[in-house]
Each structure stands twice: as structure tokens, then as C-alpha cells.
Amino acid sequence: MQMKSRRPSETDLSLDAHWDYVNRIEGECVLKLLSDQLYWFCELGSCLSSELVDRVHAPYTWTVRQAVEHCVDAERIFGDRMLRIAAGDTTNLPAWDENAYANARFGLGNIGHLISELGFLRQANLVLLGRLIPSAWDNVGRVDSHPITTRGIAWLAAAHVQHHFEIIEQRCEIAPQRAPM
């Protein structure tokens, strides 16, 4: 019997862009990955000065603060999608315009508050995933007419944060510890 939070198979993700993200992360259990990233959130946040978070680092067009805001927004959207797909909701869920959200700049607050919000959202998503029956992980929904499972969304959430946090580390020339020793 395969574990419910196992790596995705070809039926869990349908877009090459999603596979590109997911194939860059290691591990066999998405619950462990999602949980372990909570440590990274805190460590990364503690390395970011106000000088670093509000500067645009070429070739990027978002500030680090906007990139973290984007991760917060995405985590909230991933959570909604996981809930709806796990519940068997067959509504074709809409895509979202990440640039419109970033340009809205409604979350411009203390970077520590944004990191905390990301952590709270991640914890809520972990609680949701932890209470799902095994078959709910295999439920297939549609996002922008593309099929994806609850499992696929969970793996995409982990991969998405990793993608953006690695860019932030590179941009700011920081190397926070990613997991407890």
C-alpha cells in the first residue's frame, strides 16, 4: 500500500510547469516537506533586513517583500484548492493573476508578520491534509481546466515555496539553515 502523501504520479499533475517545480524537490512524504519548511520560513525571515526586502534585485521585478507576499497569497490559494478538491468539488477552479496580487501591495507590513502569516497558513494546510482520508488525496479537480489531485496541489505548495525562497536566498546572498540540526 502506498502512503497517501507519497510523491505524485502522472495522474496527480498535468502541467509541465508544475512537474518542473515538483521534480526539483527531494523527499517522499509531502507532509514532512511541508512541515520541515516551517523551520526554513523562520530562519529566512530572521536573515532579511529592511534594506534587503524593499529593493528590487535585477533581473527580477518584485521586491523580496512582494515575493514573500506572493508566497503567502499562493499558500492561501493552495489551501482553498486542496480543501475543495479533497471534498470532491468538481468546479473548474479559476487561475489567479499573481502579478495583480503582487501589484495590489495590500500586505505591505512588517516582513516578520508576513513570514508569520505564511507559517500560520502552512500550519492550517498541514492540519487539513492530516485529517484527510486516504482516498481524498486521489480526488481529481480542475484548475483553469487542467486536472490536478489534492496530492498534486500539496506537492506544488511545497515546491512553490522552495522555488521562491531559493531565489530570495540567491538575490540577498544569504544562506539560512533550512532544517533543524
From TrEMBL:
SUPFAM superfamilies: DinB/YfiT-like putative metalloenzymes. Transmembrane segments: none annotated. It holds the Pfam family DinB_2. Residues 46-168 form the DinB-like domain. InterPro entries: DinB-like, DinB/YfiT-like. This is DinB-like domain-containing protein. It comes from Aporhodopirellula rubra.
